[in-house]
Amino acid sequence: MTKDYKRITTNVLQEMKDNKEKISMLTSYDFTLAKIVDNAGIDVILVGDSASNVMAGHETTLPITLDHMIYHASSVVKAASRALVVVDLPFGSYQGDSKKALRSSIRIMKESGAHAVKLEGGDEIIDSVQRILTAGIPVMGHLGLTPQSIYKFGTYTVRAKQDAEAEKLIEDAKLLQEAGCFAIVLEKIPADLAKKVSNELEIPIIGIGAGNGVDGQVLVLHDMLGMTHEFNPRFLRRYLNLYEDINQAVKKYVDDVKNQDFPNENEEY
Ligand code: KIV
Q: pTM of the full predicted structure?
C-alpha cells in the first residue's frame, strides 16, 4: 500500500522496502523541472553526474566538476519540498582519497543543502564511504555499469553477465550495506542478479536497466521525457516525445515571427 509521506527520508525509503512499496527516483538538474518532478510525487531526486552529458553536452560523465554539481544541486534543493535529494560525487572528487571524499561530500551538503551523496564502486572506494558516513552524511552506493569507469570497461554494455563479476558485485553490495549505505543503485545488470541482490540485502536496491525484481527504479529525466533522442537503450521507457514537441513548437514560433503573425494585437501594449 502507498502511504502519503510528507517528506522522504532515508528511514522512509527503508520503510518502503520493508512494506514492499516500490521507490520512484528520477534525475533533475535545475529548479524548474525539479519542481514539476517533486510536485508529481517522486520519492528521490538524483542530481546525477549525467548532467555532464545532458546539461553540458559532454560525451562522458568524467568532465563535470564538484562546483558544477553543487550549482545543479542547490537549484534542485530549492525546488524539492517532498523528495529526498541525492547528489553524485563527480569523478575525481573521491576516488583513492577518503579525506578528499569527505571534504567533497561536506561541500555538497553545506553549499547545496542536499540530503545525501552517491558514489560509484565497491571495495575500491569503501574507505571513502566509511569516512563520509562518520560525518553523518547518508551515502547511496552505485554498482554494475558505473559510467565514471567507462574507459576501464570500454563499452556501455550490460555488466556482470559472467559469474566472477556477478559474485564480486554481490560481495560489493554486501560491503556497502555493512559500511552503512542507505541504498544502492544497480545499473545495467541481468534482472536475475539484481533480484538476488535485492532479496539478500536489507537496504533498498534501486535499478536502472536491472529488471523489476528490485525495490525501486531510476531513469534520467530527459531520457524518459523523450528530450534526448539519440540514446535508445532497451531499458528506457519514454513517457513523452518532447524532442519532437519542442522541435515543432520552435518551428512554429520561427514561422510566426517571420510571417509577422507573432505578436498580434492582443499580445502587445
Ligand atoms: O548520473 C546519473 O544519472 C545516474 C543514474 C543513471 C543512476 O547515476
A: 0.97
